[in-house]
Write a structure and sequence with these properties.
The structure holds 2 protein chains of 2 kinds.
Chain A (H helix, E strand, L loop, with lengths): L1 H6 L10 H12 L21 H26 L2 H12 L2 H7 L5 H20 L7 H20 L3 H21 L5 H33 L12 H4 L11 E2 L8 E6 L6 E8 L9 E6 L8 E5 L5 H4 L13 E6 L5 E8 L7 E6 L11 E5 L15 E5 L5 E8 L8 E6 L10 E7 L6 E2 L7 H18 L21 E5 L6 E4 L3 H26 L6 H25 L15 H26 L3 H31 L5 H7 L2
Helix pairs in contact in A: 2-3, 3-4, 3-5, 3-6, 3-15, 4-15, 6-7, 6-8, 7-8, 7-9, 8-9, 8-14, 13-14, 13-15, 14-15, 15-16
Chain B lengths: L2 H4 L10 H15 L12 H13 L11 H12 L21 H25 L4 H12 L2 H7 L5 H22 L6 H20 L3 H21 L5 H33 L12 H5 L5 H5 L10 E7 L8 E8 L14 E6 L7 E5 L20 E6 L6 E7 L7 E5 L13 E5 L16 E5 L5 E8 L8 E6 L11 E8 L5 H9 L12 H14 L13 H6 L4 E5 L6 E4 L3 H26 L7 H22 L15 H22 L3 H30 L6 H7 L13
Antiparallel strand pairs in B: 1-4, 1-12, 2-3, 3-7, 3-11, 4-5, 5-8, 6-7, 7-11, 8-9, 10-11, 13-14
Helix pairs in contact in B: 2-5, 2-6, 3-4, 4-5, 5-6, 5-7, 5-8, 6-19, 7-20, 8-9, 8-10, 9-10, 9-11, 10-11, 10-18, 17-19, 18-19, 19-20
The chains are: A alpha+beta, B alpha+beta.
Chain lengths: ~650, ~725
């Protein structure tokens, strides 16, 4: 993806641009020239310079360890807990694999952990608000949030986490009666500024850079609306001038407004036997073609008087009844009560009639969304609905691909349901009418806000469009924490050079057990506190850590994990890794607290320290031991990648 | 001893006339003219077919929800003596004389009518005045949408009834908690809460939302009890166990029992059989059971079998082969092995028969005693009619080029050796030495040479493959997927070694007799899983709406239209009620937020007990509204206005709560108070007026003229049907 930035061609992806921009930047600085095609996993890089980009990702990935260490240290004030967490992250095979390649995830996790760390730091500065370090951490939280959001939309979850934490914080401050309302207002304002205004500004700026860098036409054009395309150098809509208002006799192309919707298209081929009436096919076609041209005619008068140059130009108005004649084949756009080829509940749309003479089923009422009768229709900007006069159905594209006989173009139907969807809306893109003055498209230049909004809509729709197909083995969210199955990153069958994303089983199962353990400890502590059991100050401090710090981290884990259960899109194993980070931090905190509890309860003196130290050592050894075994096992299965072997040396 | 003689036996009856009057009015409003229209109305066409199937004891699967609601509807049919003979094919079709319309519609109507007194009681239990309770009951009584929904054979009114019952009994239980814990009535209301919850969930999964709300409330209340230092640890534990029993164990047990009754009632095979696994089908009377009766259980070397793919999508099909070969070149230019085609065929056919062969021996008959095939054994599969071996090799499959082609091997003498060894892996084995069983075992066939797994790709072959489904060898089979799993459906021990005799044998039906019965739990898990995962393809509907339309009631649903006159029935709420319910929710939210913020600064606007009242009422009414409404924003299925009815019921209960609070605490002067009561009376009469105006659309009579209908179209988005003259 970084290649696109270096070549400055426009592309479309379901994620926001920051991650790809950073990779592009790293590649640019390290001398990568953007020529490698990046077509399928397993292709060899040959002479291309990719180390810079990989190094960048790996660097960000390795930052996770100190970040997690500092976060846990700040939360629990316990060095062993922090060390345990760091240890887990260093020796987790999954984290290593994930951060070694040119992926978005290490960047996302970097910003995510950055946000969590600065949030925690800021919380511990709460005793001296408005000091320099307080401001620093608060604004750093904001910056990291913008970064996380800018890499993937999964960053929204960490925004949610920080938001909830801030609300809790403010609620606390509100209850503090020694604080005047003015002071509270200041607190509120500072947070709004740093956690809402700042990230939003950064996020928008990021998109501004994105659009400024990518100013050439590229493979992503077709996903966007006509107005958007006119912004791209090299696109045929760039700097063209066409008549602004639609008139009778004009030759036009119509583009469907759904994402990646095609142009209204027809060709000489007929619908095959048994599929509706045996008339000419009408489809939606994604590429530009002469067969996309249609002529707008009045429903009751013929072509002749319109082509006469002396006759006055008559504009098409909202609510007019028109006829659309296909330019190449001179057939009219037609619909009738036969069922459509794929969407059985809709009506079939055909090309009918000879040289423009058809029947009353060729009449369509043209309407602009949100406009009154009699208004003119603007090219490119008006969203148009075509209603079939005889049956009342609306012309739309169903988005389904026709079989072989339809040349695998997209089905066009007439839907009897009068629901407002982009499927049934069209706009006019090309417009040729010699009698009208051409105006430059720059007049139609969309504002930055419009571009921003549109690209978000397209991204969101693209995300929800990633649906799993039938009979496809997909990863389910419940597979993840139990390390049920990995994700094949790359590799060719014959060789033993394979990269396989799989967590270190001991670590992952330890994490899983710890979540249950944590719940148990929390319930016990909370019930004990609620029952008013008298605790020593040491235990009080410990239970505060368990409840407050552990609670924050658990909330983070839940926020990064549970939403995936409700997602309809295709899910992958690597989606779990942000949650895994939280889970590892929880492991550190929980085991530390658990061993301390045990030590306190069992005996008060030196043995306590021994138990505590011994327990920790056991955990660490367990992780190390299993790691060695796992790696050997993986080599036997030929699923480890060559880099992991290098790592064994240090 | 004879103490009772000394004192007179006194029976004191306490009758709340309000309650009785409300119940009677509710009954009148819901039962009046119940048989009209004597035609299929809207979703009756959907639920009706299930009632018919219940009457005929034919098995079905309905993915819309658990069976309790359907069973209640069927109970109505049973009591009315319905024989199930009616073709539920079209909305608006006239009922024939054998359909007991009145009794079929009676249960939902009764449930709808009882919601009125329930609403009254809930407000009373929330410690609001009888005036407020009366208001709530009247609003429910005059709510057009609830009336329409409860007068037909639909499930929503039953669902709302159980939801309200659960809430009421929980409140009763909670109010008894303080002074008479563990008394008889305490137990009664606690158990009733659990029962009502499970009934609600059993009618529709939407009931889960309220169940969760009640569980959360119970948890919260229990949390407060933990903080109560007067309670001993033992009594706390007893409380905990009692709640766990009544609110979790009993609902689960009841839920299971719904399925038990469902499966006990429906023992005949029917149209939905093929969704289920072979084992399940075999447990039903008729259908597959007729074929499989008397098959040997254990698959042995020499067994003749048919193999069914477990997935059952896009259609159920059996592993199949025929004499035709793969074309040498496909249309896109790729080459094939030109060997015999192997497909998955959706119909029973003699070409579906395969013989399990031991690679080490030549014979194709079962030895005496039979040698069973176990997990991990290596077998060859011989196609019965053509006696060719099932084979896969490193040739791309016709439609899924990343997988291997599966064929029946023909030796063309072109140095392409046969690779026809398969390892049998029983997926649902209990131990590694399990025997491969007919119907019960789900097996994967792993190719020995390439470790590819035999898989149904789901694509259908072009003309040359007769549009049958493609079967491939999947090399990257990391996970478990049902498309890779097969089970033996028909099975017999082969006896004839000669090909001619064997062909005759293959054509003959199977005999012998062993019955296989699934345990109830196995059946339940399978059925439950199917209900949850089955998806209907076509989701577009004329009257479907989005959750956002519901608050403002921008949509309606036309339920029925008289074939000749303009009489029609619509699901349309009482506009006045809906608007004021929205206003009440808004006022509640704002006021709560205001109070909360002020309390945080230690400013108390209202006395503590009033605040308690305000929050508990809000928890029930606003909470009920939120849990029954907000989840719909996350759902991707087709939504209709009637999904909002449970939520709106809770929202309506909030109106009197807010009004009384305004009157008691915010209207300080007498003048303001009397103004508020006057306004309330005026508003109530406007509700009544709207009810009267729209009642022709709720009851379907009298028929209205087109002008009257046009006048009723208060919103442009309403779809009121006007006949062209």
């Amino acid at each position: 993806m970084g290649s696109y930035y270096i070549n400055r061609t426009f592309f479309f992806d379901v994620h926001p641009p920051l991650g790809k921009m950073l990779i592009g930047l790293a590649g640019y600085l390290s001398g990568y020239d953007g020529t490698f095609p990046f077509q399928k996993p397993g292709d060899r890089y040959e002479q291309h310079n990719y180390i810079g980009m990989r190094g960048f990702c790996a660097f960000l990935g390795s930052c996770l360890v100190p970040f997690a260490y500092l976060t846990v240290l700040e939360l629990s004030k316990s060095l062993p807990a922090a060390l345990l967490t760091a240890f887990i992250l260093i020796f987790d095979t999954g984290c290593i694999t994930l951060s070694q390649y040119i992926l978005l995830d290490p960047i996302l996790m970097f910003f995510l952990m950055g946000a969590v760390l600065s949030m925690v730091k800021c919380n511990s500065c709460a005793d001296r608000p408005f000091s320099a370090s307080w401001w620093f951490w608060l604004s750093l939280t904001g910056v990291s949030l913008a970064g996380a959001m800018g890499v993937k939309f999964v960053g929204l979850f960490v925004v949610l986490l920080v938001g909830l934490n801030t609300i809790y914080d403010l609620w606390d401050l509100l209850g503090n009666l020694s604080l005047s309302l003015v002071m509270f207002g200041k607190h509120l304002l500072a947070r709004v500024l740093c956690l809402i205004v700042l990230p939003l500004a950064l996020y928008t700026a990021m998109f501004a850079v994105h659009f400024a860098v990518l100013n050439r036409s590229g493979p992503g054009d077709g996903f966007f609306s006509s107005a958007f395309q006119s912004q791209l150098i090299g696109n045929n809509l760039h700097n063209v001038s066409i008549p602004e208002h639609l008139a009778y006799g004009s030759v036009v192309t119509m583009k469907n407004l759904r994402m990646a919707g095609g142009y209204l298209h027809s060709h000489w081929h007929l619908y095959p036997e048994g599929i509706g009436a045996r008339q000419q096919q009408v489809t939606a076609y994604l590429h530009k073609d002469l067969n996309n041209l249609w002529v707008i005619k009045k429903h009751d008068s013929d072509t002749a008087d319109l082509s006469d140059p002396s006759s006055p130009v008559e504009f098409v108005r909202h609510g007019d009844i028109i006829r659309l004649e296909h330019k190449e084949t001179s057939r009219n756009l037609h619909s009738h009560q036969h069922e459509a080829p794929l969407t059985r509940k809709h009506f079939q749309v055909t090309g009918y009639g000879i040289n423009g003479t058809g029947d009353s089923n060729d009449f369509w009422r043209i309407e602009v969304v949100g406009r009154k009768t009699g208004k003119l229709i603007k090219v490119l900007r008006s969203q148009v609905r075509l209603t079939h006069v005889a049956t009342g159905c609306i012309l739309g594209s169903s988005g389904k691909t026709l079989p072989k006989w339809g040349w695998e173009q997209v089905e066009v139907t007439c839907t009897p349901y009068s629901k407002e969807t982009p499927n049934s809306l069209w706009n006019f893109e090309d417009h040729i009418n010699p009698k009208l003055p051409n105006i430059s498209l720059d007049v139609l230049k969309p504002s930055f806000a419009e571009i921003l909004l549109e690209s978000h809509m397209v991204m969101i729709r693209g995300n929800s469009g990633l649906k799993p197909k039938d009979n496809e083995v997909t990863s389910k969210p419940w597979h993840w924490p139990i390390n049920y199955q990995g994700l094949r990153f790359s590799g060719v069958n014959e060789t033993d050079y394979r990269v396989y994303l799989l967590g270190n089983p001991v670590i992952w199962w330890l994490n899983l057990v710890t979540i249950g353990l944590y719940l148990l400890i929390t319930v016990c502590t909370a019930v004990a506190l609620k029952r008013g059991v008298q605790l020593t100050s040491e235990l009080k401090e410990l239970s505060r850590v368990v409840l407050r710090a552990g609670g924050q981290i658990t909330l983070g884990w839940l926020l990064h994990y549970l939403p995936f259960f409700m997602m309809g899109r295709v899910l992958y194993f690597h989606h779990y890794f942000p949650a895994m980070l939280f889970s590892s931090m929880l492991t550190g905190i929980t085991w530390d607290a658990l061993l301390k509890f045990c030590a306190v309860f069992l005996s008060p003196s030196t043995t306590a320290r021994k138990i505590y130290g011994g327990g920790f050592l056991a955990l660490v050894l367990l992780i190390l031991y299993r790691r060695e075994r796992t790696k050997r096992g993986e080599i036997r299965e030929k699923t480890i990648n060559d880099r992991l072997r290098d790592q064994q040396c240090f | 001893m004879l103490g009772f003689l000394k004192e007179p036996v006194v029976v004191t009856a306490e009758i709340n006339v309000n309650l009785v009057a409300l119940s009677v009015m509710g009954l009148i409003s819901r039962l009046w003219g119940l048989c009209y229209p004597r035609a299929v109305v809207f979703d009756e066409v959907y639920y009706g077919q299930f009632v018919s199937l219940y009457m005929k004891r034919i098995f079905f699967v309905d993915d819309s929800g658990p069976p309790f609601g359907h069973m209640l509807l069927a109970l109505g049919g049973y009591l009315g003596g319905f024989d199930g003979n009616f073709l539920w094919n079209r909305i608006g079709a006239e009922y024939s004389m054998n359909v007991p319309v009145w009794s079929l519609r009676l249960l939902p109507a009764l449930a709808g009518a009882l919601c009125v007194p329930l609403a009254y009681q809930i407000l009373v239990e929330l410690h609001f005045s009888h005036c407020a309770a009366l208001g709530a009951a009247l609003l429910i009584l005059l709510e057009n949408s609830l009336i329409t929904q409860s007068r037909f054979m639909l499930l929503e009114s039953i669902l709302i009834f159980f939801i309200l019952l659960a809430v009421l009994s929980y409140l009763k239980f909670y109010n008894l908690q303080k002074h008479s814990a563990f008394s008889g009535s305490w137990w009664f209301w606690l158990l009733l809460t659990g029962v009502a919850c499970s009934c609600a969930v059993g009618v529709k999964y939407m009931g889960l939302f309220t169940y969760m709300l009640l569980l959360a409330t119970a948890g919260l209340h229990f949390w407060h009890m933990i903080g109560d230092q007067n309670l001993s640890n033992i009594s706390l534990l007893c409380h905990f166990l009692a709640r766990g029993l009544a609110l979790i164990i009993i609902p689960m047990g009841l839920y299971l029992s719904f399925f038990y009754v469902h499966l006990a009632l429906l023992y005949r095979s029917g149209p939905h059989d093929q969704i289920m696994t072979s084992a399940f089908q075999a447990s039903l009377e008729g259908g597959l059971a007729r074929i499989t009766q008397g098959q040997p259980l254990e698959v042995a070397y020499g067994s003749q079998i048919t193999l069914r793919n477990v997935l059952g999508k896009p259609v159920q099909c059996w592993l199949h082969s025929h004499t035709n070969t793969y074309p040498i070149r496909y249309e896109n230019g790729r080459g094939s092995s030109h060997q015999q085609q192997v497909t998955c065929y959706p119909f029973k056919d003699v070409n579906n028969w395969w013989i399990v062969k031991d690679p080490g021996m030549q014979q194709l008959v079962v030895s005496n005693p039979p040698r069973p095939v176990r997990h991990g054994h290596i077998v060859q599969l011989v196609h019965g009619i053509t006696t060719r071996y099932l084979n896969t090799h490193d040739v791309a499959a016709p439609l899924s080029p990343h997988s291997q082609e599966v064929s029946c091997y023909i030796d063309y003498n072109i140095s392409m050796p046969a690779q026809n060894l398969w390892r049998v892996e029983i997926v649902n084995r209990e131990s590694d030495t399990d025997v491969w069983k007919t119907i019960l075992s789900e097996v994967r066939f792993v190719h020995v040479n390439t470790s590819a797994v035999l898989k149904l790709s789901g694509a259908s072959l072009p003309e040359w493959g007769y549009r049958q489904l493609e079967v491939v060898g999947e090399k990257l089979s990391k996970g478990y997927h049902q498309s890779m799993v097969w089970n033996v459906e028909e099975h017999r021990y082969g006896k004839s070694q000669e090909q001619k005799e064997r062909e005759v044998e293959l054509h003959s039906p199977t005999q012998m007799d062993i019955s296989k019965n699934l345990s109830f739990m196995a059946k339940f898990t399978e059925l439950q899983w199917k209900i949850l995962t089955l998806k209907n393809e076509d989701t577009e509907h004329k009257y479907s709406s989005s959750a956002l339309d519901w608050i403002t009631m921008d949509t309606n649903i036309a339920y029925w239209l008289h074939p000749t006159s303009g009489a029609q029935i619509h699901l349309l709420g009482n506009v006045a009620t809906w608007a004021s319910a929205n206003a009440a929710a808004l006022v509640y939210l704002c006021l709560s937020l205001w109070y909360l913020l002020r309390r945080r600064r230690k400013i108390y606007d209202i006395p503590e007990d009033a605040w308690q009242l305000w929050t508990s009422a809000g928890g029930v009414c606003a909470g009920g509204w939120a849990v029954n409404y907000l989840p719909f924003f996350l759902m991707e299925k087709t939504l209709f206005l009637y999904h909002y009815l449970p939520a709106v019921t809770f929202q309506i209960l909030l109106i009197p709560v807010v009004l009384q609070h305004l009157g008691d605490h915010l209207c300080r002067s007498v003048l303001l108070k009397s103004m508020l009561s006057a306004l309330t009376v005026a508003w109530l009469s406007s509700v009544y007026f709207v009810y009267c105006t729209f009642s022709p659309l709720s009851y379907g009579q009298p028929a209205l003229s087109p002008t009257e209908l046009r006048a009723l179209r208060w919103k442009d988005t309403w779809n009121i049907l006007i006949r062209k003259q």
